């Protein structure tokens, strides 16, 4: 009995929690330390669009073994966040959310999906903005609100992509943002940020940012203001530079933002394989004053050839060249400096008052009168979704990866496992490290995974446990 109780305590402690973050002014802040937080993320949608199938009870965060496999590999990669696009609020995500939480990774959650009735349409948004659509977005909030590693919700993704729909769509995206923020205010115990993920189309990019960050009433607490603004940008290709890629104009354009700015997707794949030299710029001194990191597109290889890992139908995985290149770029960063920075002592930028003067392109809307809440939706905002999905952090009985993982040289990793982190810790390169990952060509550097190759002279690696917990188990056995 004592042994069993000690092991239960061990498991409960292993499933520690990351510190919930806040979007404060133009930065993400760890409220416990007061430090800024830089997103070092990867887009996560195993199975692509087919990975989301409500009829089959399937989405990216509903399979424990798959999440264990990918969280362990992401620990090796060095990321501290995932972006997940298509989620079914009616499925149970407790195990996967708990795994990524223990692995030190936050979740950026899109509330929409590609299915009819589950997103705003770009051509006629007024036809898709109704109560049942909002009910589903609120259900996603309910499903993820209790996980401490839920970092933010995206109210839309690339809904505005040219001047034509820039004339009609923005008020509806802002209305959805308003409705989501009011729902969070009424039904969530902490202020989880809500924002927009934009296409990097320069004709509408900065107008979109100004439209969503401004305050209609001139006050920062305007509930229709976005809490963050992100962009999907692929302008840095190959061995580019800060200026050649146009990153300099992005920094210049977003300087003075009143909300956090980050890349919700990046990683041009022409030429291929990718070398990810933009990582050093994104987390370097020229950008971190304005940007809060970014999310590499994407974890899983699909036909578009952006993947870091190739998955097989049996659940096994092959690490691709891009995986090693990105890992090595992350390993060059000084994470102590990056995640230990304090926000400037100077006054934070205030949101501009919404005005036609903020909009530069004549086709982009200057209408800041938002659509009314659709019939029936206000009742849901006030009373909540019913029945409401509910998530919680749970104890994971094993952290061991059961799927076969192959290096790019064909060698097989063994002993791969998620390394649970202590409370308030986030993942970074070297967290899950052992002499186990072959580089394939022998040119890779940086952290290696907590695993061994079958051709690595029998070396093994174990998950490192806190000394006090080991002592607890030993004491229980002795009794």
UniProtKB/TrEMBL annotation:
It is found in: Cell membrane. SUPFAM superfamilies: (Trans)glycosidases. It comes from the Eukaryota. Pfam families: Glyco_hydro_72. Coiled coil: none annotated. GO terms for biological process: fungal-type cell wall (1->3)-beta-D-glucan biosynthetic process; fungal-type cell wall organization. GO terms for molecular function: 1,3-beta-glucanosyltransferase activity. The keyword rRNA-binding does not apply. Its EC number is 2.4.1.-. Keywords: Glycoprotein, GPI-anchor, Lipoprotein, Membrane, Signal, Transferase. Its main location: membrane. Residues 1-23 form the signal peptide. It is a lipid-anchor; GPI-anchor. Residues 425-438 have a biased composition (Low complexity). One of its GO terms (cellular component) is plasma membrane. Residues 424-453 are annotated as: Disordered. Belongs to the glycosyl hydrolase 72 family. Splits internally a 1,3-beta-glucan molecule and transfers the newly generated reducing end (the donor) to the non-reducing end of another 1,3-beta-glucan molecule (the acceptor) forming a 1,3-beta linkage, resulting in the elongation of 1,3-beta-glucan chains in the cell wall. PANTHER family: 1,3-BETA-GLUCANOSYLTRANSFERASE GAS1, 1,3-BETA-GLUCANOSYLTRANSFERASE GAS3-RELATED. This is 1,3-beta-glucanosyltransferase. It comes from Diplogelasinospora grovesii.
